[in-house]
Amino acid sequence: MDSREASTLVFDAIAYGVAGDSERAADNLTKLGIQGDNRLMYAACCSIAEAGKLMLVRLNGGRVVSPEQGDMWVLEQLQPGALDRDPAGAFAVRFLIAHANGDHSTTQALFAAAVRAHGEQYIDSVCALLADVVGITRLALDQQS
């Protein structure tokens, strides 16, 4: 699979998710996982996170957060320890925040840990990232209306 086809699958997965067609969104992620390698899946996660970053900016009134100027996106846990009980969810929010802050070494480390995880955790982690970005996108679109 080339990067152009992978990009289309990622974009369409997000669009399907926003439209409420989770089955087709999952089909696209599955196709990426089957036909791609870890490098391609890491790029897909970065693309999904970039879409999430753009929606975070929209939710932030268009104000771009710039780590170079001392600003940072942060994660606030409303229920302390909640992410400790949800490894896939923890991956998703940590990957998104690290990507939004331009922290590529952290995104790479998070992805590598997800790949090495037991059972379905890797798949669950990528799906959780997509689900979080879809949710953020829906919220941003709702606020726009």
Number of domains as seen in the coordinates = 1
- Count helical runs: 6
Low-confidence stretches: none
| Secondary structural class | mainly alpha
- Coarse shape: globular
Number of beta strands: 0
Q: Distance N terminus to C terminus?
A: 37 Å
Query: What is the element string, with H for helices and E for strands?
Result: HHHHHH
Main β-sheet: number of strands, strand sense, barrel status? Answer: none
Secondary structure: helix percent: over 70%
Rg value? 15 Å
Provide structural commentary.
The chain is an all-alpha fold and 145 residues long. The protein has one domain (3-144). The protein has six helices and no strands. Helix 1 (3-18) runs antiparallel to helix 2 and helix 1 (3-18) crosses helix 6. It is globular, with a radius of gyration of 15 Å. It starts with a helix and ends with a helix. The model has no long low-confidence stretch (mean pLDDT 92).
Short overview:
With 145 residues, this protein is mainly alpha-helical. It has helices at 3-18, 22-35, 38-59, 87-100, 104-116, 121-144.
Strand and helix layout:
Blueprint (H helix, E strand, L loop, with lengths): L2 H16 L3 H14 L2 H22 L27 H14 L3 H13 L4 H24 L1
Helix pairs in contact: 1-2, 1-3, 1-6, 3-4, 3-6, 4-5, 4-6, 5-6
Jot down its keywords.
mainly alpha; 145 residues
